[in-house]
Fold:
Amino acid sequence: MNPGTVIDVSILVSVSSLLVAAATFFANRKKDIQQDSQGVLKANMKLDQICATTNETRSDIKAINSQIQALTERQIKTEAEIRSIWKRIDEIRDEIKEEIRKENEE
Structure:
């Protein structure tokens, strides 16, 4: 081998190594991109699921608030009725006391 041939072979080996390295780099890059896109897809699916769950929770909270409001209104009415009943009981008791007092006076 003469010195020119050795240089040509070394250049050929260097160029071949660069081509193999570039091919490996792009192949790995393609795999990385696919893995990244799969990861992004999984993350998006999880975010969609979280969003749906949040919407369901929000809907449930609105329903619970409506039930609480209805129960509060019912309680207010019941308390008003109870006050009215006690007031009537007091009136009847006073009437009975008055009748007993009148009977005792006679």
Notes: The mean pLDDT is 87. Residues 3-105 form the longest helix (103 residues). Residues 88 and 94 are 10 Å apart (CA to CA).
